[in-house]
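Protein in question filed below.

…
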Amino acid sequence: MRLPTAVDGPLVTKLVASCPPLDVNSAYCNLLQCTHFAQSCIIAEKAGQLMGWVSGYRPPSEPESFFVWQVAVAPAARGQGLAGHMIEALLARPSSAEVTHLITTVTNDNQASWALFEGLANRWRTRLERSPFFHQQTHFAGAHATEWLARIGPLPR
């Protein structure tokens, strides 16, 4: 596992596109994540192949939280706990020392993401609270399912 760099941007775009139901961000967005936000993102490789990607950041209005933006795991690496290990590696970085909660948004039908975050909450013996965050009609004009905020914490330290 390592920090991403600009050369990873196109690989991240390709990986995310292979992981429905994830929203595919623009190539430029992924380049910015791999450079400007590299300290809050992580790449997992095996034999030189991109196996996993987690992007995130600490919201300026809520610096005690770490927001997980996207989690993508290549089909060949699924079912091995890689997503959870990448998130834990991000939270173990010195830049996350003051983080007390993990937050993310997930659509109701994204079973894999709910299983990941419920599993982390159970492993950490803490709560996972759900609440609607971006509504299908209000925020997406009906074009995207409601995104639910998952808030996990307090985190073990």
About this structure: The mean pLDDT is 96. Helices lie at 9-17, 27-35, 82-92, 111-123, 136-140.
